[in-house]
Amino acid sequence: MSKITNRNIPLGQLELAPDNVRRTPADAAADEQLRASILALDVLENLLVRPKKGVRNTFEVVAGGRRLAALQALAANGDIPGDHPVPCRLLNGAATGTDVSLHENEVRAAMHPADRFEAYHALTKQGLTSSVIATRFGVPERSVERLLRLASVSPELVAAYRDERMTLETLMAFSVTEDHAAQKEIWDRSQAQHRALWPNEVRRELTEGAVAGNAALARFVGIEDYERAGGTVQRDLFSQDSDGVYLTDRALVNRLAGEKLQAAANELATEWKWAEARIEPDYEAVNRMVRLKMVPVPPTEEEQARLDALRQKLASFDDAGQLGDEQVDEYYRVEAEANALEEELDEKGTFREEDKAIAGCVVYVAPNGEVGVIGGLVRPEDVPKREERPTPEPKAPASHAPAEGDTGEAAVAGTAHSGQATAADSAEDGAVDAPVPSFGERFEDPVWSSGRTKPSNPAVKAAEEAGMSLSLTNDLKSIRTGIVKARLARNFAVAFDLFVFELVEKLHTLGRDNCTSISGAETHMRPVDRLREDDFATANPGEKLFVRPKLDIGAEDRLARFDAFRNLDRRTKQRLFAGCVAAMLNDQIAFEPLARPELERVIELLDIDFAGQVRPTEQYFWRRLKREQLLKVGRQVLGDAWADARLRAKKATLAEELGGIFGPQPAARGGFDAEVRERIEAWTMPGFKPWDHDSGLVDNGAADAAAPAEQADKAPGTNDEAEAGAAETVVDFPEPAPDAPAPVAEADDLPAFMHEESA
Fold it and tell me: Beta strands 85-92 and 47-51: pairing type?
């Protein structure tokens, strides 16, 4: 064993031994920390040295090279004298320097982090602040604060970390709060369940109810403004920036946000009929409103010049032929910039002042933490009828001569440009100075009117191919869907199948057009232009048949309401479920180009007798067909004799007569024999029956004089089947006939896995 003697040796007599095994320098932060420690507490561990052969009063440092370098740096900086006494152990014996240096580094055990942060915590009890501790040990103050935060965690959890039953990352997550009871509750629950805890799970539970500092709502309010208002924050020192800040007083956050939003809404209320401030938009309410169309705004000179320059740049690339790699990258960059600018210019627009007078906007907190505005919203009660048009006030006649004293620019302003009439010229006869926009030019189709965007060219084309206008097609879609909703609301089995299918499709086919608005938004029962027409209800029985599902639970507290809902009987829950699915059903007519086949199958399964539920009226159906179409339907259903006798009849006369014959009163059909009366009562409007792709209103070259028009195309792969039974009443839906296309389960049947007894 080597003999070791302790002594203090002046710093100037020490130098690094050539056989010291540590060659790779430590990082700068670690060296800085070591220098601070020596400056505060001197050298805590002796350097191992040996006399240098052949040189008097010089010693080689075999172990402790970093400490030597730190002492030399402090001396060079003037922090300690050059002859500062250094505690050393003088090594005498057979062991080599390499052997001693390696042992000194290898057998050293690093301090456990728990020991370290508990030691820091003990220093705070002695009155040392985090900044003093940081200076003394040469570490950043934030590092000290983090270690002290770890020391504030429940001792039981620190013990679990020492025993390696918890990771350091999980312990860090627990430090987001100093509530030991909350920490212990989460830990004890995980231990009882014999499962590991994930750090994110711990943070989420301990900050439940708080608003994350990086959330849009917190950024909108501002953390500083929140704290000035008396709000408290919870900080996760192990996260970066605002990611680790939690605003614990959600009510205060909401109040501050509401005040800022209301201020913005008050300003916008001067431009719109109304302005509503909401932290989050009520998209169900928004989707039930009608959207105004914006009037396109031409680009500014600067925007047009920028777009022209980008286009010219792209053209130069096209003319250059083969491009190198750098040129290809530049081409794609310019192309993306040009496309983005074109898209931005396409979306530019403004609203007509006369439209603003009936519309409003919703002010909310946008995802970027700024004020968001959804403008151009018209409430259903404010939507004008199709016949109503905004009529600008006629301009008062103006004199062509400038008023006395008017000269220069004022006089020129009253003069028309070359080739144009002045406003006074057109106003003399009371004329308006701009054409009045049509209903379609003013309003977008609402989200709920079709479940998709505004009608596209294929929709218009399909309506024309069916021999109808798009407006009539939209009316028939709403009437048909209203009846389907009422029937679906009474059939839990079909509603359950449709909902689960749609849910799975939604998960795996993002953006696909589905049968329902699976988000929970209720779809409307009418087209946009029928919202204020009381008469439309007579043509749309689904409005009375379908009852919007509602929870008749008196409790206001959500938890109490949920508990009350759980105690409802199974049949009531099924009725509510089916009603909700039905309420979300998007409208569809069988012959439209984007008709969803699964919805046609649903309608087939429901086995609805549309002819018994709704009759075509003169106002909403017959008047809107062409004269030849009226005669064709009459010939197909009523016979050649009836049609031939009316070849010279006017359209209005035919529409009125057919409205009576096909209407709800059987007496109007008394003059026909039993076979014709049966065809009349079975006749269904085009596109109502499932898979009915042929409207029967367009001449297809096959003139079948008296063939019944009620036959519809069946679903692919199914056999033709006769209609079941007599017409259903408007109030009650009968059970499906035995020969229906597919068996339908009872309305209160639950899948086997949902029965309580199967649990």
Answer: parallel
Residues 655-688: pLDDT tens digits? 999 999 999 888 888 889 999 999 999 999 998 9
108's CB contacts (< 8 A; 6+ apart) are none
The CATH code of domain 119-251 reads 1.10.10
pLDDT-based confidence at 513, cuts 50/70/90?
A: low
As given in the structure block, the two tokens for residue 346 are 């396409």
Ordered alpha helix ranges (H), 193-324: 199-206, 216-221, 223-228, 250-268, 283-287, 301-319
Residue with token string 């509602």: 550
Give the number of other Cβ atoms within 10 Å of residue 93's Cβ.
Answer: 11
Same topology for domains 3-106 and 119-251, yes or no?
no
| pLDDT, tens digit, 9 for 90 and up, residues 633-657 | 999 999 999 999 888 888 888 999 9
pLDDT, tens digit, 9 for 90 and up, residues 174-222: 888 888 988 898 899 888 888 788 888 888 888 777 888 888 999 999 9
Query: Could you give the CA distance from residue 709 to residue 698 in angstroms, rounded to a whole number?
Result: 12
* 139 SS3 class: coil
Q: What is the DSSP string of 86-123?
A: EEEEEEESS--HHHHHHHHHHSPPPPPHHHHHHHHHHH
Lookup: tokens for 357: 């007078």
DSSP 585: B
- CATH classification code of 3-106: 3.90.1530.10
Rounded Cα distance, 314 and 444, in Å = 35
pTM greater than 0.85 (yes/no): no
Q: How far apart are CA 616 and CA 631, in angstroms?
A: 15
Instruction: Delimit the domains of the chain by residue range.
Output: 3-106, 119-251, 298-347, 468-610, 615-682
How does DSSP classify residue 443?
B
Tell me which residue has tokens 């000290």.
Answer: 144
Do the strands 274-277 and 245-247 form a parallel or antiparallel pair, or are they unpaired?
Answer: unpaired
Neighbours of 192 (CB within 10 A): 8
Distance CA 575, CA 555 (A): 20
> For residue 438, what are its two tokens?
């049509």
Evaluate the CA torsion angle 40, 42, 45, 48 in order and state its sign: positive
